[in-house]
Amino acid sequence: MANVRPVTEEERGEIRHLHGEGKSRNAIAKMLHRSGRTISKIAEELGLTFDRAAEVRAATEIRQADLAALRAQLALDLTHDAIRLRQKLWKETVVYNFGGADNTYAQKTFDEAPPAEARTLLTAVGVAVDRSLKLSPPETDTEGLAAVDAWLKGMMGGS
C-alpha cells in the first residue's frame, strides 16, 4: 500500500497563494511534489478552480487581433509593391542576355519596358494585387449603392 501523506494547512495556504499568482494545477503539483489530482481536490475544497477558459479566450482574441493587424500591413505593403512594379513599365529599362558559343554578354536600353518584360511586370503586379485583396478584401457599401440606384431611377423617371 502506498504511503499517504496528508496535506498540511501550510500546503493548503501555498496552493491558495500559488493559484492566486495564476500558476497552473500542474505547476503547483510539481512545486509541492504532489499529484495533479491532489491539487485539484484541495483547490475544489478551497473553492478555487483552474478553469482558464476566459483567459484563454481573451488571449486568443488578442492573438487574432495581432494577426489581423499584420495581415492588413502585409496587404498595404503588397499594394505599394504593385504600384512600384507598375511604375517600372514606363521607365527606362535595360535588357541583357548571356549566351552563344562564346558566352557573350549583350545589353540594350529601352525608353520603357519591352513587351516581354512588361508582361512579366504586369504578372507580378497582378499577383501582388490579388494577394493584397485576399488579405484585406474591400468593404462593400450596400447603403451607398442603394442610394445611387435610387438617384439613377429618379433621374430616369423610374419609380
Protein model, in words:
The chain is mainly alpha-helical and 159 residues long. 63% of the residues lie in helices and 9% in strands. The chain has 6 helices and 2 strands. A two-stranded antiparallel ribbon has the order 1-2. A hairpin with a 4-residue loop joins strand 1 and strand 2. Helix 4 packs antiparallel against helix 5.
How do the helices and strands line up, and which of them pair or pack?
Blueprint: H1 9-20, H2 25-32, H3 36-45, H4 53-87, E1 93-99, E2 104-110, H5 115-135, H6 142-155
Antiparallel strand pairs: 1-2
Helix pairs in contact: 2-3, 4-5
Task: Report the strand count.
Answer: 2
For the largest beta-sheet, the strand count, sense and barrel status come to:
2 strands, antiparallel
Which series of helices and strands comes N to C? HHHHEEHH
- Helical amount: 55-70%
Termini, distance in Å? 90 Å
What gyration radius follows from the Cα positions, in whole Å? 33 Å
The fraction of residues assigned to DSSP E strands is 5-15%
